[in-house]
Amino acid sequence: MSRIGRMPIAIPAGVEVKLDGNHLTVKGKSTLEMDVHPNMIVKIDGAVITVERPNDDKQHRALHGLTRSLINNMVIGVSEGFSKTLEINGVGYKATKQGNKVVFNLGYSHPIEMVEPE
Q: Residues 49-94: pLDDT tens digits?
């Protein structure tokens, strides 16, 4: 059985999940919708979503983990939203935040300043 597919998905507070037949709707900060493959079995029990497959056919095994990952990404997307983490590796590189600007010292003769997007 798929290790990813059998893991339950926790529904955080403030997120509403509806399943109408094969159509899944996830509401939080925004709304995301998806049509689940007809062979996948999605169950919502309180604050937990589980995805099951009917048998061990090759296609069902492939869809099991995929369906669970797509639903988990939908839940994360409407609860936390998009974020990007910047990691600077190496010697001699430095980044500092000054107000709404980020100042990079990357070895050039001058610092590079970037304004944060909204």
A: 999 999 999 999 999 999 999 999 999 999 998 888 888 888 888 9
Whether 102 and 114 have beta carbons less than 8 Å apart is answered as yes
Task: Report the candidate in 78, 79, 75 with the shortest Cα–Cα distance to residue 42.
Answer: 75
Interacting residues of 48 by C-beta distance below 8 A, sequence separation 6+: 8, 9, 10, 11
Q: Which of 35, 45, 38 is nearest to 11 (CA)?
A: 45
Q: What is the pTM of this model?
A: 0.75
Which residues make Cβ contacts (< 8 Å) with residue 45, sequence separation at least 6? none
Q: How many CB atoms lie within 10 A of CB 108?
A: 8
